From TrEMBL:
Cellular compartments annotated: Cell junction, Tight junction; Cell membrane
Transmembrane feature ranges: 12-34, 91-110, 117-139, 159-182
Gene name, Swiss-Prot/TrEMBL: Cldn23
Molecular function via GO: structural molecule activity
One Pfam family linked to the record: PMP22_Claudin
Protein name: CLD23 protein
Membrane topology: Multi-pass membrane protein
Domain of life: Eukaryota
Keywords linked to the UniProt accession: Cell junction, Cell membrane, Membrane, Tight junction, Transmembrane, Transmembrane helix
Family: Belongs to the claudin family.
CC terms in the record's Gene Ontology section: bicellular tight junction; plasma membrane
């Protein structure tokens, strides 16, 4: 046992949180349910419309008949919060992947000493990627009730939006944990 071979706890926490954040953000990005519209006029009581940033699905809940790829009759995909999410969510995912590669090189669990500066830079990248996905999720939530919907429908946030929020928060926390590595760089100087 060599004391210098231990990976700092903050680095391990940061890596775990960011990997979990990536998984949740990816799921939220591709999920067809950022918003659910139910109880629409001229529709059965158990009919639900799910709107994501890439797809629109309908489901008859009593029979579990689900159809995706529905026509965008209300110009939902043309709305600015949806278009912003379509751009920023994939950008966030790409930056998260890049940040995790840099973090893996910085943490270097297989080496004697981690590269604190590299881990800190990765932390900042992951913090930024979390903010990049938090912005569209927040904006979409703010505009949830103003985006076009069928007449008389009840609107609620969908699981895709919730997962995007959670993933963003985990990436921000993980990025902050990795950014603590800068403290070690300052101590060395």
């Amino acid at each position: 046992y060599l004391p210098s071979m231990r990976t700092p706890t903050a680095m391990i926490v940061g890596m775990v949180l960011c990997h979990c954040g990536l998984l949740l953000t990816f799921t939220g990005t591709v999920a067809p349910s950022w918003r659910q519209v139910s109880h629409m006029s001229n529709q059965p009581i158990d009919f639900v419309l799910e709107q994501g940033i890439w797809d629109i699905c309908t489901e008859q809940q009593s029979t579990h008949d689900r159809l995706c790829g529905q026509a965008d009759e209300l110009a939902y995909f043309e709305q600015v919060p949806v278009r912003v999410a379509q751009g920023m969510m994939p950008t966030s995912l790409a930056l998260t992947l890049l940040g995790l590669v840099v973090a893996a090189l910085g943490v270097r669990c297989w080496q004697e000493e981690p590269r604190h500066l590299l881990a800190g830079v990765a932390g900042l990248m992951l913090l930024l990627s979390g903010l990049l996905s938090l912005v569209p999720a927040s904006w979409y939530t703010h505009e949830l009730w103003t985006l076009p919907a069928a007449a008389g429908g009840t609107l609620v946030a969908g699981y895709g939006l919730v997962l995007s929020y959670l993933g963003s928060c985990l990436e921000i926390l993980g990025g902050l944990a990795l950014a603590l590595s800068f403290h070690h760089c300052c101590k060395e100087r």
